[in-house]
Amino acid sequence: MKRISLLLMFAVAVFFIACGPSVDGEKESWASNKKNLTKIKTDHSFYAKIIDEKIKEAEKIWKEAEGISDEDKKAEKMQKANDLLENGCVGNLNGMKGEISRVETKIEEVIRKQRSAKKGKYYADEKIDEARDAVKYAEKVFMEEKNCSEIQSRYKGLKTAYADLGRAITRMESSSSSNSSTNRNKSTINKGGSNSSSGKTKTPDTPKKVKCSYCGSMNSASATKCSSCGAPVD
Questions:
Q1: Phi and psi based region of residue 143 (left: phi greater than 0; alpha: psi -120 to 50; beta: remaining)
Q2: Most buried of the four, 15, 151, 180, 222, by CB within 10 Å?
Q3: Per-residue pLDDT at 118 exceeds 80
Q4: At residue 205, does pLDDT exceed 60?
Q5: Co-location of 75 and 115 in the same domain
Q6: Which of 134, 160, 179 is the last residue of a domain?
Q7: Same domain, yes or no: 69 and 144
């Protein structure tokens, strides 16, 4: 038991060491962050002032880190310098274009899923429209100067849009899985035989149903909206 505990402690220690910052990793991030921000500053000069101020602040911390001999402490200090360029207003500018690309890729994934989905299409359409709006508003950040509050709000909008698109995919996949299970159950019941000519009590007629022309779900004849996807029922 003692040996297992020691092995477990060792594994946990290795995990945290592996997941912690490293000098080489922080150096790569530093070079990438400065390169990205320099390009933004060059392409969109109206952000030059806030970018220069943040880089100057980060460089001061980076210089302090270079004077530390302990590798772990040096990496932690370097991480703080990178955090200044990866978070807040400048950090959002730094990551905005990457986030826009990520959302656009997710939109394409949702559209592909819609082709074979039986349910959840109406919800997916809503989230696609919202995501496209989020991308459009985010792109305007690079067309004209926005204050920090607007930049952070539009970056957050992209994050929300990406998460909502993921939920749209989950809905479509779960409904497809549910339909498959229902079909298997119906097949099993049908194999058990029919009551039509066996003299058994006839089951009462079920209420009339109306099929949703959008997702194919069945709704009561009095329904005005689909209970599954929310689309109007003709």
A1: alpha
A2: 151
A3: yes
A4: no
A5: no
A6: 179
A7: no
